[in-house]
């Protein structure tokens, strides 16, 4: 069985602070009225140099304005869109590679064979014209 033991702070052992009617610890009631947060980031605006701030820094500072659920949804949507775009570009590049290599491997030999066949047809026509000219004359 676990036994709990209360350990008091040395500061509170020597002098017990007074409590208010709400059981909150205050040294005096006057201090409550004059309380200001001097270490707040808002009160320390002199350190912020707005002129040298970039657009990306300003946009990234706006992330605290958007609720976490909306941020997750936006991040998910952007991630999905980026993945889809990357896949589309990769598929397009690979398809273009396949089409171009197929055209070179199949098209160039076909074009050479077609040109050679045209030369044979041209040669036969010339020989036919020469033969026809010899028969007439």
TrEMBL record:
Report which residue ranges the record marks as coiled coil: none
Biased region (Polar residues) positions are 16-26
Record key words, sorted: Membrane, Mitochondrion, Mitochondrion outer membrane, Protein transport, Receptor, Translocation, Transmembrane, Transmembrane helix, Transport
Annotated segments matching region Disordered: 1-47
In which residue ranges is the amino acid composition biased (Acidic residues)?
A: 28-47
Topology in the lipid bilayer is annotated as: Single-pass membrane protein
- Give a single Pfam family match: Tom22
Where is it found, in Gene Ontology cellular component terms? mitochondrial outer membrane
Localization recorded for this chain is: Mitochondrion outer membrane
Signal sequence, start to end:
none
Report the main location listed first in the record: mitochondrion
Q: What GO biological process, any one, is recorded here?
A: intracellular protein transport
Matching PANTHER family, A to Z?
MITOCHONDRIAL IMPORT RECEPTOR SUBUNIT TOM22, MITOCHONDRIAL IMPORT RECEPTOR SUBUNIT TOM22 HOMOLOG
Which family does the record assign? Belongs to the Tom22 family.
Q: What is this protein called?
A: Mitochondrial import receptor subunit tom22
Organism of origin: Aspergillus sclerotialis
Q: What is the lineage of its organism?
A: Eukaryota, Fungi, Dikarya, Ascomycota, Pezizomycotina
